[in-house]
């Protein structure tokens, strides 16, 4: 998939040769004036798979038919439901099956993992993250620091870009880790920054953190289902993610967690619950906690079956598509969107400044742009014309063509509409 179409017919020709083209018909698009919207907000909430409804109906029917016995007699027994998701989730993030568990939600998982991997002692008390990670991460870091009786103003260190720059340089991240040295307990970045769309080098950050004697973790909210991840090989200590963005599993759906195998079966401190107990003895209801020998040990509660039912559908789609093919299309699709925005900007007094790095190694599907002028007005016009993107104050517009269901014709149509909105 190469080259950028200059006409709608050329865009349709590229779409016709797209090996992923059939997936578009597996999703439900909101409609605008009798046709599908241009949906570029998969980085916020993915579209609904058509198979989601039948997956939920299956669980409702099994509940009606079997009652409590559905834990063992349902088509997908609820007692072991999360186990059916493990292999696919592990493939998605490049991990071993025993390193992954589908559970809880994103910030809950971050907290449970910080219990194990943020262990301030002596001088080693600081957490390093990027400037303006998703706010929930900041709240989690600050509250964990306070939980240990420390001051977030002193212990939470945020990396800022150089003066006049909008994104971080890897050499500056490494240098800051070295500078903090034995004061550093944890480095925890969003693998893709939610605001700028910058993707960080998981392997390089992890190696620098470990060399400094610190742990390394990542929030994959904007990376899972977007980037081609290799968590086991890259070696971070932990990671967590949500499934309602690129993973199309529905609002507030179940999250995921990764714990590297070197930590499995160890005596790491953790908050325990009955679903993390050895499943062979779980219903003996014994007093002492006996953790599972896998990432499942971090579970505290039984499976939220209804949200997992939709996640099963989504994971099956990703297994059929393959992250390699998805990522190749994403690079081409977002590259076309970038060129389209640059051309419109150049023709209109450089009204847009793309924040997201051009290098595919430092970006995913999302493009974030600074709007010089009446950005709010342009955004409002786009919305009125059936374009779904989003706005972040004071002047950032984000858009993310998802390769699973977006097309080159979507991008071409978007360019036509954006050009008209700018002229108005």
Provide the fold topology:
Layout: H1 8-16, E1 27-28, E2 31-32, E3 35-36, E4 38-39, E5 48-49, H2 52-66, H3 70-73, H4 83-93, E6 100-103, H5 106-117, E7 126-130, H6 135-147, H7 152-155, E8 156-159, H8 170-180, E9 184-190, H9 202-211, E10 215-219, H10 231-234, E11 238-241, E12 255-259, H11 305-321, H12 323-346, E13 352-354, E14 367-371, H13 375-384, E15 387-388, E16 390-392, E17 396-399, H14 408-423
Parallel strand pairs: 4-15, 7-8, 7-9, 9-10, 10-11
Antiparallel strand pairs: 1-5, 2-3, 6-12, 11-12, 13-14, 14-17, 16-17
Please tell me about this protein's structure.
This protein is an alpha/beta fold. The protein has two domains: 8-50 and 322-423, Alpha-Beta Complex (Aspartate Aminotransferase, domain 1), CATH 3.90.1150; 81-320, Aspartate Aminotransferase, domain 2 (3-Layer(aba) Sandwich), CATH 3.40.640. The protein is 38% helix and 14% strand. It has helices at residues 8-16, 52-66, 70-73, 83-93, 106-117, 135-147, 152-155, 170-180, 202-211, 231-234, 305-321, 323-346, 375-384, 408-423, and strands at 27-28, 31-32, 35-36, 38-39, 48-49, 100-103, 126-130, 156-159, 184-190, 215-219, 238-241, 255-259, 352-354, 367-371, 387-388, 390-392, 396-399. The strands form five sheets. The protein has a seven-stranded mixed beta sheet with strand order 6-12-11-10-9-7-8, with helices on both faces. Strand 16 (390-392) and strand 17 form a beta hairpin. Helix 5 (106-117) runs parallel beside helix 6 (135-147) and helix 8 (170-180) packs parallel to helix 9.
């Amino acid at each position: 998939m190469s080259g950028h179409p200059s006409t709608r017919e050329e865009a349709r020709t590229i779409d016709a040769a797209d090996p992923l083209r059939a997936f578009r018909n597996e999703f439900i698009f909101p409609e605008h004036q009798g046709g599908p919207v241009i949906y570029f907000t998969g980085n916020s909430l993915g579209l609904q798979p058509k198979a989601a409804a039948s997956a939920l109906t299956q669980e409702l029917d099994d509940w009606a038919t079997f009652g409590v016995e559905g834990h063992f007699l349902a088509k997908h027994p609820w007692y072991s439901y999360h186990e059916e998701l493990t292999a696919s989730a592990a493939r998605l993030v490049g991990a071993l099956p025993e390193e992954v568990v589908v559970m809880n939600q994103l910030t809950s998982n971050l907290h449970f993992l910080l219990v194990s991997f943020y262990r301030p002692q002596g001088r080693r008390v600081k957490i390093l993250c990027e400037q303006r990670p998703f706010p929930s991460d900041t709240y989690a870091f600050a509250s964990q620091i306070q939980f240990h009786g420390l001051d977030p103003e002193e212990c939470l260190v945020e990396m800022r870009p150089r003066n006049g720059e909008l994104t971080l340089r890897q050499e500056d991240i490494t240098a800051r880790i070295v500078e903090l040295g034995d004061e550093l307990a944890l480095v925890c970045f969003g693998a893709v920054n939610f605001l700028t769309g910058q993707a960080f080098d998981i392997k390089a950050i992890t190696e620098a953190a470990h060399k400094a004697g610190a742990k390394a973790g990542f929030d994959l909210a904007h990376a899972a289902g977007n980037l081609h991840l290799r968590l086991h090989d890259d070696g971070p200590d932990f990671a967590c993610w949500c499934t309602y963005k690129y993973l199309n599993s529905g609002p507030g759906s179940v999250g995921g967690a990764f714990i590297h195998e070197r930590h499995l079966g160890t005596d790491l401190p953790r908050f325990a619950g009955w679903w993390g107990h050895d499943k062979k003895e779980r219903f003996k209801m014994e007093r002492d906690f006996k953790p599972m020998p896998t990432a499942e040990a971090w579970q505290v509660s039984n499976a939220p079956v209804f949200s997992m039912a939709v996640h099963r559908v989504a994971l099956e789609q990703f297994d059929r598509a393959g992250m390699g093919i998805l990522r190749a299309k994403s690079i081409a699709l977002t590259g076309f969107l970038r060129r389209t925005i640059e051309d419109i900007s150049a023709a209109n007094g450089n009204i847009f400044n793309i924040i997201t790095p051009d290098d595919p190694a430092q970006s995913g599907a999302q493009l974030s742009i600074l709007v010089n002028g009446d950005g709010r007005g342009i955004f409002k016009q786009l919305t009125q014309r059936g374009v779904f993107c989003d706005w972040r104050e004071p002047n950032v517009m984000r858009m993310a063509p998802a390769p699973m269901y977006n097309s080159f014709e979507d991008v071409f149509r978007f360019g036509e509409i954006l050009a008209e909105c700018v002229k108005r």
